[in-house]
Design goal:
- With about 575 residues, the protein is mainly α.
- It has 24 helices and 7 strands.
- It has helices spanning about 5-25, 35-50, 70-80, 85, 90-110, 115-125, 125-130, 135-160, 160-180, 190-200, 215-240, 240-260, 270-280, 290-300, 305-320, 335-340, 345-350, 355-380, 380-390, 395-420, 425-450, 455-465, 475-480, 495-510, and strands at about 55, 60, 470-475, 485-490, 515-520, 535-540, 540-545.
- A 5-stranded mixed β-sheet has the order 4-3-5-7-6, sandwiched between helices. A two-stranded antiparallel ribbon has the order 1-2.
- The chain starts with 6 loop residues before the first helix and ends in a 20-residue tail after the last strand.
């Protein structure tokens, strides 16, 4: 994409654009639901208690994900000393590592000239930037899978390289204990075997490593998984408590095999990922009509690099499509491989007038939509007010968000007029750097008090005073994370009736100084509604504050229900 720049400036300026876009907003917001607060809460508990082996959500073990990502967040905090600055660092560093790995592979597999093209293809995809700026496991997973691909491709496409092969297996193992699908790079062995078969069938000599060397992937993979499974196995052998056994069973079986084969949420049709690729992979997804024929020609003449990259990407797509449970982030590991596969074709594509027109049109549409939406927000339309009211957000946000969108759109349109069709590739990169700067510097910080629940928890602290004790019932992770004092909680997944069974007597022990923050749907009939304080709404959840004096100890009615995971 950066063809219009002088060659010696392409890579440094590309790195500058990418770093600006990805770093923008670091330290300006709190963790936001659904995933960020639970990971940061578990990481903070590790730091506070010194117990890093098992992640906790309050007093309960958190068994939905392995702790590796939370280790990284906790280690980032130990290095930085501030949660607001550190919780996004693992994702940011993983994104930068992924970009470097893709660029280095493009240099090794194709040519140093194609390094900026591969990196630009990855950075210029909407989903990559979006996930790089979220504190979720997926970006770190992608760094691990890309590192594994880096080692595999160096061994399979350059020359026999056992250290690189060991690194590939180890990274896949660490990726697997980061998120269960980290083993996916090992599937590249299958398209490699297909390529070998094609070579034999067409009488071509094979000059790569012997297939037996790939067996070294297995011990390296096992060593990688022992980063976490080793300490967990040691704990299971020496302290096999029912709590620990239940945690291991939940994570190693239900959250992996059962979740894949018989998903209980995020159930989507088989074609779901087609719409994900068509939207979140813009603008690259609409280049597929121009890419299909060149890719096919390269496959037909036995280009092993394309066999491995495209074959592996297809296998990943089939793997995730076969599961009934589907989320858009599952396809993220495919993007680096596809960016590499498209890199040798981009210089030729960018010489096509139709491609440049499409990229220019993409940026113009983005700018026009931003200007129009910004104008609607600044104009205070009924629709805009209704959207804020639905989320219990103040009208003041209209000015901040509207101004940011209007400014972004105007700048994009001005740059588009200056660069025009001839430099459409550069225009896409600048547009995305501006988009992620807007996202990090304006939009998310403006939404943060309401999206993160910090505004509600601040009101709670002001209302009950500094000397009061606070309890949480039917709480969300962000409530516990952003409370301004030590909190008494009564379990996260426990049924609400059981939580009230403990919370009621706790209130009654000191009714003048103890308060309970409760989700409105979980309010007990044993509470005097006249004393309940409606403290606000966050993340579409309405919260109520119960003073200890509102609890009727003689009442025995129960409230049914339980807290569900936020999606």
């Amino acid at each position: 994409m950066p063809a219009a720049l002088p060659r010696r400036w392409r890579l440094p300026l590309l790195w500058l654009l990418m770093v600006i876009g990805l770093v923008a907003g670091l330290g300006l917001r709190q963790p936001q639901p659904p995933d960020e607060p639970r990971f940061v809460l578990a990481a903070r508990t590790m730091v506070d208690t010194g117990q890093w082996l098992l992640p906790h959500r309050g007093g309960e073990l958190y068994a939905e994900k392995p702790p590796v990502f939370m280790w990284l967040q906790a280690a980032s905090y130990e290095a930085v000393g501030n949660w607001q600055w550190s919780f996004l660092l693992p994702s940011l560093l993983a994104a930068l590592l992924t970009l470097w790995l893709v660029g280095d592979l493009a240099r090794r597999l194709w040519s140093p000239r194609l390094t900026p093209y591969a990196m630009a293809a990855l950075f210029g995809t909407l989903q990559f930037g979006l996930m790089a700026k979220r504190a979720q496991i997926d970006m770190v997973l992608v760094a691990m899978t890309t590192l594994s691909l880096w080692g595999l491709l160096r061994h399979l496409c350059e020359r026999r390289n056992l250290p690189a092969l060991w690194l590939a297996g180890f990274a896949a193992g660490v990726g697997t204990v980061t998120k269960g699908v980290g083993f996916l790079p090992l599937l590249m062995v299958l398209p490699w075997l297909g390529w070998r078969f094609w070579q034999r069938r067409h009488g071509q000599a094979h000059h790569g490593p012997h297939g037996a060397t790939l067996l070294w992937l297995l011990p390296a993979f096992v060593v990688g998984t022992l980063v976490w499974l080793g300490p967990l196995g040691w704990a299971l052998l020496h302290s096999p408590s029912p709590k620990l056994l239940s945690y291991a069973h939940e994570l190693l079986f239900k959250q992996t095999g059962t979740r894949y084969a018989n998903a209980w949420h995020h159930v989507q049709p088989a074609w779901y990922y087609l719409q994900v690729m068509a939207t979140l992979w813009l603008p690259g997804s609409l280049l597929l009509p121009w890419l299909a024929r060149p890719w096919w020609r390269r496959l037909a003449r036995g280009d092993g690099r394309q066999w491995l990259l495209l074959g592996w990407a297809v296998l990943v797509l089939v793997f995730f499509s076969a599961s009934p449970g589907k989320r858009e982030v599952y396809l993220l590991p495919m993007l680096p491989a596809l960016a590499l596969a498209v890199a040798p074709l981009l210089p030729g594509l960018l010489r096509r007038v139709a491609v440049r027109r499409y990229l220019l049109g993409y940026c113009i549409v983005l700018g026009v939509v931003a200007v129009a939406l910004g104008g609607v927000l600044l104009g205070g339309s009924p629709w805009a007010h209704a959207q804020l009211a639905k989320r219990a957000m103040p009208d003041e946000l209209l000015g901040v968000m509207g101004g940011g969108l209007l400014g972004f759109g105007a700048v994009v349109l001005v740059i588009a007029a200056a660069l025009r069709q001839r430099r459409a590739g550069v225009l896409v990169l600048v547009t995305h750097a501006l988009l992620w700067s807007l996202h990090g510097l304006v939009l998310l910080p403006a939404l943060d008090p309401h999206a993160s629940a910090s505004a509600v928890m601040q009101r709670v602290g002001q209302r009950i005073g500094p000397q009061a004790e606070l309890g949480l019932l039917a709480w969300r992770e962000q409530n516990l994370l952003q409370a301004d004092r030590p909190v008494r909680e009564f379990g996260f997944k426990r049924p609400w009736a059981e939580q009230w069974h403990d919370a009621g007597p706790w209130l009654a022990q000191a009714p003048q100084t103890r308060w309970l923050l409760v989700l409105d749907d979980a309010m007990s009939p044993c509470v005097d509604p006249a004393q309940v304080i409606d403290i606000g709404t966050a993340n579409r959840n309405r919260w109520q504050l119960v003073p200890g004096t509102a609890w009727n100890a003689q009442c025995h009615a129960e409230k049914t229900g339980a807290t569900a995971e936020e999606d």
